[in-house]
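Board notes (copied after class):
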Amino acid sequence: MKKNKKEIVCNHCLQKQSAMATICKNCGNPLGIIADTYSKHWLSNKALSSSSGIVVIGIWLMFGPFLGGLSWIMWVIIQENKNVFSSLMMIGIPWILCFLLLYITTKNYIMMKYFSGRSAGKSLGKK
C-alpha cells in the first residue's frame, strides 16, 4: 500500500511542501498558519536583507526631511519661548516616533549586513 502524503503549495514560489512544513525549503516563505502570523516580519526581513539597501534609503528619503523639519520647528519654538511645553509635546511625540523609525531601520540593516557576511570560519580567521 502506498502512503498518502499530504502536501501543501507555497504561496510565494508554488513549490510543493510537506503538510508538516512551516517554512518553504525553496524560498524560505512561511507556510500555513505560520504564514499568517509572521508574513509581515518575513517580508520586511527579506526587504532589509537585499544587498542594495534600497529600503533604508527610501525610509531616510521619506522620513529624514520630516525629522529635520520637526527639529527646526522645535528649535524655533524654544527660541520664541511661547507656550513651549504644550508645543513641544505636540511636535515632540512625532519627532520621537520618526527618530525611532529611522534609528531602528538603519540599525537593523547595519546589523544584518554585518552578521550576514560572517560565518563560523570567517570569525575564527579561517578562509
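Comment from the instructor: The mean pLDDT is 75. The first helix runs from residue 32 to 48.
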